[in-house]
Amino acid sequence: MGGQNKKYYFADLEKMSSDEHMNEDVQDIACPRLVLEYNKHMGYVDKLDMLKSIYELDRKSKKWWLRIFWYLLDISLVNAYIIFKNRNTTTKSGKCMTLKDFKLAVCLGLIGADENIPKKGRISSVQQNTFKANVPREIRYDSCAHMPIHGSSRRCAYCSSTSTPHRTKWICSRKRK
């Protein structure tokens, strides 16, 4: 059984030092063990509130129960992060995972972002026009200054890939056709 089932009774007394600031007297007094345990862990509530408020999930809602749901979800995520942090001290890079990264990992795990989810519905039989530049590679990547210049009115290759063709007077200085 060990120390897993701790039962505290008010009659269990421990010695605790009390400081008298006026007389500068320090005395050992009898104190319930429950009070000692409380004093030992009383900063955890403040730490939980601080971690919860960093990346809060609270959403405004007219339904009161939804606000309680967001609060409980936030508290359980912070508690899970604390347990995760205590068990896994470091990641592969040597740093501990932040709360933001932990919440993101939980969200991605819940929505299944790692899996390839097939799209619902039919596959479109109509090919959509996509822009394909017909500029030769040697001109396109020659790292010269490709500057726009004013030319004659022509059909824009990019804009005309949509349903309505557009015209432009601007052309590339390297490709004068």
From TrEMBL:
InterPro entries: PGBD
Transmembrane among keywords: yes
Keyword Membrane: yes
Keywords, in A-Z order: Membrane, Transmembrane, Transmembrane helix
Transmembrane segments: 64-84
Residues in PiggyBac transposable element-derived protein domain copies: 20-81
Top-level taxon of the source organism: Eukaryota
UniProt-listed Pfam families: DDE_Tnp_1_7
PANTHER family according to UniProt: DDE_TNP_1_7 DOMAIN-CONTAINING PROTEIN (PTHR47272), PIGGYBAC TRANSPOSABLE ELEMENT-DERIVED PROTEIN 3-LIKE (PTHR47272:SF2)
Identification of the protein by name: PiggyBac transposable element-derived protein domain-containing protein
Organism: Acanthoscelides obtectus (Bean weevil)
